[in-house]
Amino acid sequence: MSSLQFAVAHFMTPVKLPSKPPVSRLDPETAWKQLTARDPQAQFFCGVTTTGVYCRPTCTSRRPLRANVRFFRTAAEAEAAGFRACKRCKPNTPVASSPSGAACGSLFDEIREYIERNVDRRVGLEELGRVAGLSPFTVQRQFKREMGVSPLAYQRALRASRLRGALKQGDTVTDAIYNAGFGSSSRAYEANQLGMTPRRFAQGGKGEEIRVCSAPSPFGWVIVGATRRGLCWLALAATKAEAEATLRAEFPEANLLRDPSLSRWVEMAVESVRSGKNPVQNQTGTEFDLRGTVFQLRVWQALRQIPRGQTRSYSQLARELGDAKAVRAVARACAMNRVAILVPCHRVVGADGSLTGYRWGVERKRKLLQAESKS
Fold first, then answer.
1. Is 345 a catalytic residue?
2. Rounded distance between C-alpha atoms, residue 179 and residue 163, angstroms
3. What DSSP designation does 149 have?
4. What is the pLDDT, as a whole number, of residue 278?
5. What pLDDT does 12 receive?
């Protein structure tokens, strides 16, 4: 029904008004915060006056301006106000649930799960577009906004995760490559996300060159390490010697080369605490070389979405990732984070607000959060 048709029907048909006002009302400011955080626990719908569309608060559509948003308790209320249902998040249909009870009805989850089911072959954007009912361009844009990487890069990460696990278990390089879904050894060497060749990874980074730079900061000594693919290490410590020891312990067989130019990463890290500017989100030509499982990559990407000055609990992150029962797995992924500050695991706290643990010291975590809480 168009807005005009609704208006005519509204004034031509007697309407029985409720005898009592609603028991509870939505707090617009609280609802807006939940909307910007895409809180899966939010119990409302939001309409955008400029488009005439209403959505779930978890919808992956582009975030509207605050002035253009109206909030509703139910889908029926939104439609009664003249808004039509979003075709992406389908707010007028029941949300499908996973065995754990977590909502998984978004098109983004549909695309991601399709890629995961077909990791043994390359899945193109055209195919993903047919699955989601979207254009290839929209699939690429939406997926990259949610995950921080393209669908193709995510496929490669899935295969690299399999390859990494097989190599650690002692499989031969050849067997690991083919069992991980790579069609040939050359494909694995060209497209892997280990940050080094499979053979060198299996040998503890033997022969790999990692450029290194260390410098003092307000939060202790910072050491950064980078392969040709990007930043692979950023650690905090009390002394320069302790900082450098962390990198050597992580890559015992690699060749470490001093590179003073990497000091810019230290400056970027400190600036991200002071102003909230994340170089990976706001600049081009800056990349991470993160090495972890697919789930860890998803957690680390979610961490980069937490705004400066805000925190999330482990359970909140688990719900945002679509599995409310994965609290321990989220906590472990945070503990395994290799890039401090820029992948801000310090912004994750206990359900009661306690600081819990931190790979680089709880007191340092406290200082980081205090610095970010200042305007």
1. yes
2. 8
3. S
4. 60
5. 35
Residue from 86, 89, 232, 345 carrying the catalytic annotation: 345
Angstrom CA distances, 307 to 151, 153, 276, 292, 301, stand at 24, 25, 7, 23, 12
Tokens encoding 360: 């680089």
Question: How many other C-beta atoms can be found within 10 angstroms of the C-beta atom of residue 2?
Answer: 10
Phi, psi (rounded to 5 degrees) for 287: -135, 155
Tokens encoding 86: 């979003």
Q: For position 106, what pLDDT does the model report? A: 58
> In this structure, is the dihedral angle defined by the CA atoms of residues 355, 349, 347 and 238, taken in order, positive or negative?
positive
Asked whether the predicted pLDDT for residue 284 surpasses 80, the reply is no
Q: What is the assigned CATH class of domain 3-85?
A: alpha beta
Which residues pair with residue 339 across a beta bridge? 234
User: Which one from 55, 86, 213, 232 is the annotated catalytic residue?
Assistant: 55
Closest CA to 349 of 303, 304, 305: 303
| Whole-number Cα distances in Å, 104 to 46, 89, 93, 282 | 19, 10, 13, 29
Strand order across the beta sheet in which 230-237 lies: 230-237, 220-227, 209-217, 255-258
Q: Is the pLDDT of residue 113 over 70?
A: yes
Q: Return the structure tokens found at 329.
A: 């797995």
- Does pTM surpass 0.70? no
- Choose between 295 and 311: higher pLDDT: 311
Q: Which residues pair with residue 97 across a beta bridge? A: 103
Q: Considering only CA atoms, which of 268, 267, 355 is closest in space to residue 311?
A: 355
pLDDT attached to residue 164: 56
Nearest residue to 102 via CA among 345, 317, 362, 366: 317
For the chain, the domains span: 3-85, 98-203, 209-373
CA distance 318 to 299: 9
Residue 311's pLDDT band, with cuts at 50, 70 and 90, is very high
Annotated catalytic residue 59? no
- Domain 98-203 sits in which CATH superfamily? Homeodomain-like (1.10.10.60)
Pairwise pLDDT comparison (22 vs 291), residue with the higher score: 291
Q: Which fold has domain 209-373?
A: Arc Repressor Mutant, subunit A (1.10.10)
Task: For residue range 138-177, list pLDDT tens digits in order.
Answer: 888 877 766 656 788 777 777 666 655 555 554 444 444 4
Q: Are 288 and 226 a contacting pair, CB within 8 Å? A: no
